[in-house]
Design a protein that fits this description.
Elements lengths: L10 H18 L2 H115 L2 H19 L1
Length: 167
């Protein structure tokens, strides 16, 4: 076997020799074990972070589900409140209509009563005016057609008949 390529005067020889020495020193000082420990520690840290991330993700999903349930419950409650408000509005509208109808009936009855009173008063006034007019006309007719003696007899007869009616 010939080592022609290795010649102490060439730079490649010294580079190769120094490379072998550095590698030997690194192995002797146990650098690969330290690197392996650091890599293992880093791998464990990454695994812990992944575990923590999974835990946080699960908590976030639970929170999301909780918020979705609350949102659904709030929507249902809002729908219930709206339905109740609509029912109350319908009842209030119905009640207001009934009260308005009652007021209208009372006012109509009161107006009819006032009209009836006015009619009765007008009829009484007309009767009184007619009676006054008839009395005046009768008086005028009697004055013109009866003499004073006949008139006195007639008044006396009326007084007697009126006295007998009150007794």
């Amino acid at each position: 076997m010939s080592f022609d390529w290795i010649h102490p005067d060439e730079a490649a020889f010294w580079v190769a020799l120094s490379f072998v020495i550095v590698i030997g020193v690194l192995i002797y000082v146990r650098v690969p074990g330290l690197v392996a420990k650091q890599l293992d520690a880093r791998a464990q840290g990454i695994a812990d972070e992944i575990t923590e991330a999974r835990r946080l993700r699960e908590e976030a999903q639970e929170l999301l589900a909780s918020f979705q349930r609350r949102q659904q419950e709030a929507a249902e409650e809002a729908a219930s409140i709206v339905a109740q408000a609509k029912n109350e509005a319908k009842m209030m509208k119905k009640q207001a209509r009934e009260e308005m109808a009652e007021r209208l009936e009372r006012r109509t009855a009161l107006a009819e009563q006032r009209i009836a009173q006015a009619e009765a008063s007008a009829a009484a006034d007309v009767r009184a005016a007619a009676a006054d007019l008839a009395a005046s006309a009768t008086e005028a007719l009697l004055k013109s057609s009866l003499k004073k003696a006949d008139l006195n007899k007639l008044v006396d007869a009326d007084i007697k008949s009126a006295g007998s009616q009150f007794n």
